[in-house]
Amino acid sequence: MENTLDHQQIQDFIQQGFVRIDRAFSTSLAEACRTILWADTGCDPNDPTTWTSPVIRLGNYDQEPFRQAANTPRLLNAFDQLVGPGQWQPLTSLGTFPIRFPSPVDPADTGWHIDVSFAMEDDDPTDFLSWRANVVSKGRSLLMLFLFSTITENDAPTRIRVGSHVDIARQLEPAGEVGLSLRELAANGFDETADLPEVLATGEAGTVYLCHPFLVHAAQPHHGIHPRFLAQPPLLPAHPFQLERANGHYSPVEQAIRLALRLA
């Protein structure tokens, strides 16, 4: 089949830290998944008076429509292009769904962050701020945003700081294999990325954003009309990333880190 991403899209991923794939999965699959999610929210999709919380978080979903949405040929090919064939684990579920509702209430979860991916043996696994990332992105190959509803600028789209993965790679390098905790990374509010351009992860239902694991991003309050359905699963590695190889062949994720560290 034809590659999902062209050369320019891969270069944009390396430089900017993300790529948007339109029609990554069908709107009919998105609708089937929303039906399941609506039932689990306990809310009535036709009665906004039942939407009493600004955000409802639902757990892993591995039913057939979710698995189909996560494993379309377009997405599988894009994973190969960005991470490398045989270098990632197949998606069997879609992680947590933070479903956001129109609300004047502050959801209290809109801080800038990266998605950390591992904990040390002595860390409290329930303390999410103690979870860590390191320069080879142990435990995570991609950050992904799956849009299961159409998301406009008013529908609480994820905010993305373009090129922020470069700053994070440089911050992580001196910490070596142990890396830094989210508490350490966020100590200054990610101020080193504050002047970067910001993009909103908008799109039709079925859109997927594939992001570098170091990309700084944030949620925001919902000021629109229709609830926002989005999944944010990690793509897990089958093998650790490497920044030095004898053959000189690197995936785009690795290339981005190497460029940030001036290894390339």
Automatic annotation (TrEMBL):
Superkingdom assignment: Bacteria
Molecular functions per Gene Ontology: dioxygenase activity
Alphabetical UniProt keywords: Dioxygenase, Oxidoreductase
Gene3D superfamilies (alphabetical): q2cbj1_9rhob like domain
This protein's name: Phytanoyl-CoA dioxygenase
Organism name: Spirosoma foliorum
